Structure formats: structure tokens, C-alpha cells
Amino acid sequence: MAKTVTSQMFEYGIKHEYCEKNYAELVTWEYTNPEEEMHVPFSEDELRQLWANKEEPFVDIILMMIYTGMRASEFITIEKKNVFLEDKYLIGGMKTEAGSQAHES
User: Fold this and answer.
1) What is the number of domains present in the chain?
2) What was the pLDDT predicted at 99?
């Protein structure tokens, strides 16, 4: 995607006479395998530390976001009617258009 955007920017620049050449064509692009795990968001030690401090302000919210995978913007929009404490689950989150289409496939 970076190659496409960069190339399009140079094409725009050529069209509007900001530059004379598409330098994106001269770059060697290396791609990583998106299947590879790049990092572990929280180590086991970090999770233990959070659990040990769950009574501190906002730590419970951080833990819920970690385990649900929700972003802060998704988490703060959860409605009370979608929280089921006795059954230990909640309903929330937002799908992007791309995520919704992938789910439907």
C-alpha cells in the first residue's frame, strides 16, 4: 500500500509540475509477512502485575479492554443494557466496513 500511495503522490506531483520523475519507481520495497506475529501486546508478567493491582483506579478497565480486544472508543460506548454482570459477559465493539465484509464472507 505504501508503494501505491507514494507512486500516486509522485504522479500527482508530475501532473502539477512539482517534480519531473516518479522516484517511487526507484525504491526497492520489502514486505513483511502479515501472518507473522510481530509482538505480544502484554507479557504474562505484565498481566500478573495488572491483576495484582486490579483495585487501583482504571486497572479493571484496562484488563477488560485487554481481554475483550476492544479499543477505548469502543469500550466507552458500551450501553448499560448490554452489560450482564451475573452472566459475566458484555456486548459491545464496532466493526469497520472491511471487518464487517470479512465476517460476512
Assistant:
1) 3
2) 43
